[in-house]
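User: Reviewer 2 asked us to show a designed sequence for the structure in our supplementary figure. I'm pasting the structure tokens here. Could you produce the per-position amino acids so we can include them in the response letter?
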């Protein structure tokens, strides 16, 4: 099973990918996670990528394509993978095709900007566990009562100026991929504003899992 999850930041691609990996054993590959790891480790790639990421801009295609190709060449990808956050531009999608990577389905996460803004602005990462929480009223999952504000970290690119820019970048550079994959008859839409249990009801039959 080789899947692409396509959708704006904050659409819940990571959460849904986690659900599918639990159910099928395929691996989730998030280029955002790989890049954040490279930044944390201070690698050459990380140094080049950091300023783009902090501003909510896309990291140049050549860097991300190289990173992704190395990752999918690893043996744990043999049974399949979910690409979460890649491709994000037409040249990235073309690079996948040129490399002969066959994709079975592209899941298009449909969601309104206002829902994305609400989710991203409240998103926090619990430092100790790496788990994601949402501090907005009614946000899911809410931090537990034992968590202090200093235990929770906000990504630089989840700050308001960067969120607005990421949505704009998504519309301009990534949304054209919807028609790219529709024309290849690979696209399936899901309503990403629903919660995980409802999404599973819609998605699992599409994937046959
Ligand atoms: P994400 O965690 O998927 O929201 O990614 C965080 C940031 O990493 C993005 O805002 C980009 O700066 C960068 N990034 C992740 N994936 C890609 C990609 N496929 N192409 C270019 N930049 C990317």
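Assistant: Here is a per-position design you can include in the supplement:
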């Amino acid at each position: 099973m080789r899947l692409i999850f396509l959708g704006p930041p904050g659409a819940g691609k990571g959460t849904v990918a986690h659900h599918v990996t639990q159910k099928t054993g395929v691996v989730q590959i998030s280029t955002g996670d790989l890049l954040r790891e490279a930044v944390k480790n201070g690698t050459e790639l990380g140094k080049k990528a950091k300023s783009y990421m902090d501003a909510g801009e896309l990291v140049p295609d050549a860097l991300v394509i190289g990173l992704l190709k190395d990752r999918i060449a690893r043996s744990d990808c043999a049974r399949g993978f979910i690409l979460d956050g890649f491709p994000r531009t037409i040249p990235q999608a073309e690079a996948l095709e040129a490399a002969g990577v066959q994709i079975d389905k592209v899941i298009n996460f449909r969601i309104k900007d206002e829902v994305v803004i609400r989710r991203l602005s409240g998103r926090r990462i619990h430092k100790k566990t790496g788990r994601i929480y949402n501090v907005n009223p009614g946000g899911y999952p809410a931090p537990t009562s034992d968590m202090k504000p200093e235990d929770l970290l906000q990504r630089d690119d989840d700050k308001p100026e960067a969120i607005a820019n990421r949505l704009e970048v998504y519309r301009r550079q990534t949304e054209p991929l919807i028609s790219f994959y529709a024309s290849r008859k690979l696209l399936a839409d899901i309503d990403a504003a629903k919660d995980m249990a409802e999404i599973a009801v819609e998605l699992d039959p599409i994937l046959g899992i």
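For the response letter, you might also mention the following. The longest strand covers residues 105-110. The beta strands are 2-6, 27-30, 81-84, 105-110, 123-126, 132-134, 152-153, 187-191.
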